[in-house]
Design goal:
The chain is of the alpha+beta class. It folds into two domains: about 40 residues, no CATH class; about 140 residues, Umud Fragment, subunit A, CATH 2.10.109.10. The protein is built from four helices and twelve strands, in the order ααβββαββββββαβββ. The strands form two sheets. Strands 1, 2, 3, 4, 9, 10, 11 and 12 form an eight-stranded antiparallel β-sheet that branches. A four-stranded antiparallel β-sheet has the order 7-6-5-8, with no helix packed on it. The radius of gyration is 25 Å and the shape is elongated. The N and C termini lie far apart (about 95 Å).
Length: about 200
């Protein structure tokens, strides 16, 4: 084999093992995109707060991380701040965007709102997170199996379960766990115990 033939073989081998830089960039971006979509769909995603219905806990334009994994293994608990897809009743009213509220009633529980308090199975719960006591009456209503009653922390300015009913478990997208914006209120939600002892 001549020197020229050797050079051609070496150049050919080099070309086949070295990728074009543009192709490398495209592959890297495609991989990052697929991973981002997978993480957002299955693990966690960022959300922002568009309304005052969860004040004082969440304010307009707060940015949150919603985790989606825990509800595959455990059930929602009273006090969880959840993001959910619109129920059938809400879809009938042309709501398309996800809602964020607090779980108050669990499957099988009887919920009533009267005299400025929420009652679960006849016992008043002492809520630390509400803006003000509710000035409406609701129930008593029993939460159906695999559904949840959700209320906004800003009770008197929240379009929630006391208007349109219960949230099916399959509508739950995830649980709000961390506020990452604004920086002066950065941190996990509800760091102190939610409910006072009776």
């Amino acid at each position: 084999m001549t020197e020229m033939e050797k050079d051609l073989v070496e150049k050919s081998a080099k070309t086949s093992t070295e990728e074009n830089p543009v192709i490398e960039i495209v592959k890297t971006l495609a991989t990052a995109f697929i991973l981002a979509i997978g993480i957002r769909t299955l693990v966690a995603e960022a959300r922002y707060i568009p309304s005052s219905s969860m004040e004082p806990t969440l304010e307009i334009n707060d940015r949150l991380i919603i985790e989606k994994v825990s509800y595959y293994f455990t059930s929602p608990q009273r006090g969880d701040v959840v993001v959910f897809s619109p129920t059938e009743k809400l879809k009938e009213q042309n709501f398309k965007d996800a809602f964020i509220k607090r779980v108050i009633g669990l499957p099988g529980e009887t919920i009533e709102v009267r005299e400025g308090k929420v009652y679960v199975n006849g016992e008043a719960i002492k809520e630390k997170y509400i803006e003000e006591a509710p000035d409406y009456n609701y129930g008593p209503e029993t939460v159906p199996e695999n559904q949840y009653l959700v209320l906004g922390d800003n009770r008197n300015n929240s379009y929630d379960s006391h208007y349109w009913g219960f949230v099916p478990r399959q509508n739950l997208i995830g649980r709000a766990i961390v506020r990452f914006w604004p920086f002066d209120r950065l941190g996990s939600l509800d760091q102190t115990p939610l409910y006072e002892e009776n």
